[in-house]
């Protein structure tokens, strides 16, 4: 190789190396995102089955049915899911309140009367949250951190479910309100 | 004049039969438009791909026509002689075929497989082409461009060396992007081989860039498809919830679901 062609060959080799690096990186990222979406699809299937079981069950009180509908509506919104993810990361905004206490009492009652349905309720909440996290691009980036925080803090706590239900957009066409609020 | 079919015939009989469509295509390619069209129609099932592609290229009429005294030993002359012989054998009832295998045509005619059946079977699926050429081979689209570049724009030294791996096109059937990439990369490797290193590297870089763009677009498409599947599952959840909304609005969530579609919703009643 002559000295005249060497710079051109070197430049071409550098450009080729850059392109190849970019290709490998893009291959990794797109493959990871596709796998995340596949897991989200699987989780949504489980979530839909659990939601259907809860809504069709006679042993589940209305409070929990409204809660699960509100929660499922809320996690269909990307902004709400992102806000919940940031709440989990920061650890703020998940304080219990009066409604949380009602829901907690209903869950304890359900666990005593129908433990299997209480397990299904927990499954619907967890799969719904994970599927929503993996569904959207903005929250899929935070998934690992949020899932670790969720696993560490969720076990007996339903505070985030109630918080998510409150963050649900009120302009949705099918708003499920409590009977007292509807009559007021 | 001695027939050239036995004097210059380096190919085996099986290979000659396999490359027959390519030769026929080359024979028809008298104008540049036909030349481009038939470059894209090179068949891929049969003998060695490199050999067939190279022979197809060589069989085409070249731009620099040699003097009369030098003809007879070039690959183009070889291709022309083979193509003319192949066409004669292909007609089945021609004199060459009868001499090669006497009695075949007559036995078929007596057994009921007459000329009409044979002609109709032969022409099936290729009505737009001249009868006798067989079914239309698959197209390779942009994969023919490197071959076109070989024949038109590159020096004669490069035309002697086509560094396409044997069977590459066969393994890449159906993968058009990969086919284009391998073909252009082979041209780049050939350029480097003949001493045009800068042009080869440049072509290789451009090829890699195009490959990167096309593959990225394909991956984005796959991701978008998977996202649509997730949205479909999310819509199923919405359908399940929608069946219970009216019941919860009427504070009768434990009603049997079979009555749900018959009950007018609150929104419907307001209309």
Can you summarize the main beta sheet of chain B? none
SS-derived structural category of chain A? mainly alpha
Q: What distance separates the N and C termini of chain B?
A: 97 Å
- Determine Rg of chain A (CA atoms, Å): 23 Å
H/E series of chain A: HHHHHHHHH
The coarse silhouette of chain A is: elongated
The unreliable regions of chain B are 1-9, 29-55, 57-98, 101-114, 116-131, 133-141, 256-269
Largest sheet of chain A: none
- Count all strands of chain A and give the number: 0
Count the strands of chain B?
Answer: 0
Biggest interface, which chains?
A-B, 45 and 38 residues
Q: Approximately what portion of the residues of chain B adopt beta-strand conformation?
A: under 5%
Shape of chain B: elongated
Are there runs of chain A of 5+ residues with pLDDT below 50, and where? 171-179
β-strand percent of chain A reads under 5%
Arithmetic mean pLDDT of chain A: 80
Order of helices and strands of chain B: HHHHHHHHHHHHHHH
**Broad structural category of chain B:** mainly alpha
- The percent range for helix content of chain B is 55-70%
Give the N-to-C terminal Cα separation of chain A. 88 Å
For this entry, give a set of tags.
heterodimer; A: 184 residues; mainly alpha; B: 271 residues; disordered N terminus; disordered C terminus
Layout of strands and helices, then pairs:
The complex is a heterodimer of chains A (184) and B (271).
Chain A: H1 5-56, H2 62-74, H3 78-90, H4 98-113, H5 115-135, H6 137-140, H7 143-153, H8 159-166, H9 179-183
Chain B: H1 4-7, H2 13-18, H3 20-28, H4 32-39, H5 49-59, H6 75-90, H7 95-100, H8 104-110, H9 115-123, H10 144-152, H11 156-159, H12 168-171, H13 176-193, H14 197-249, H15 266-270
């Amino acid at each position: 190789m002559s000295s005249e062609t060497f710079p051109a060959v070197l430049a071409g080799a550098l450009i080729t190396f850059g392109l190849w690096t970019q290709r490998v990186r893009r291959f990794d990222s797109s493959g990871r995102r596709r796998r995340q979406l596949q897991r989200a699809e699987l989780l949504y299937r489980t979530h839909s089955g659990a939601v259907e079981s809860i809504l069709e069950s006679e042993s589940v009180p209305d409070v929990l049915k409204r809660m699960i509908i509100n929660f499922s509506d809320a996690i269909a919104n990307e902004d709400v899911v992102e806000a919940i993810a940031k709440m989990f990361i920061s650890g703020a905004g998940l304080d219990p309140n009066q409604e949380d206490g009602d829901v907690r009492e209903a869950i304890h009652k359900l666990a005593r009367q129908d433990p299997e349905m209480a397990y299904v309720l927990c499954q619907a909440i967890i799969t719904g949250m994970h599927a929503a996290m993996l569904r959207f691009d903005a929250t899929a980036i935070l998934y690992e951190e949020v899932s670790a925080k969720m696993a560490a803090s969720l076990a007996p706590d339903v505070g985030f479910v109630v918080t998510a239900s409150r963050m649900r957009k009120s302009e949705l066409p099918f708003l499920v309100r409590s009977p007292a609020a509807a009559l007021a | 004049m001695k027939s050239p079919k036995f004097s210059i015939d380096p190919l085996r009989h099986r290979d000659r039969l396999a490359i027959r469509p390519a030769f026929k295509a080359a024979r028809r390619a008298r104008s540049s438009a036909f030349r481009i069209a038939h470059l894209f129609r090179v068949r891929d099932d049969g003998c060695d791909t490199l050999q067939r592609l190279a022979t197809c290229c060589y069989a085409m009429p070249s731009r620099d026509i040699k003097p009369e005294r030098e003809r007879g030993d070039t690959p183009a002359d070889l291709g022309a002689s083979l193509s003319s012989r192949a066409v004669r054998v292909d007609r089945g009832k021609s004199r060459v075929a009868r001499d090669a295998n006497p009695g075949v045509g007559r036995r078929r005619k007596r057994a009921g497989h007459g000329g009409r059946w044979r002609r109709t079977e032969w022409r099936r699926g290729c009505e737009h082409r001249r009868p006798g050429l067989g079914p239309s081979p698959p197209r390779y689209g942009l994969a023919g461009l490197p071959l076109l570049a070989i024949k038109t724009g590159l020096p004669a030294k490069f035309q002697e060396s086509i560094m396409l791996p044997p069977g590459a096109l066969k393994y890449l059937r159906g993968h058009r992007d990969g086919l284009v990439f391998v073909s252009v990369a082979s041209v780049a490797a050939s350029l480097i081989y003949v001493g045009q290193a800068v042009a080869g590297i440049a072509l290789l870089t451009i090829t890699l860039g195009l490959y990167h763009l096309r593959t990225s677009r394909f991956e984005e498409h796959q991701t978008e498809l998977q996202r649509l599947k997730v949205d479909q599952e999310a819509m199923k959840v919405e359908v399940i919830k929608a069946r219970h909304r009216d019941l919860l609005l009427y504070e009768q969530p434990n009603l049997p679901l079979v009555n749900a579609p018959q009950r007018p919703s609150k929104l419907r009643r307001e209309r």
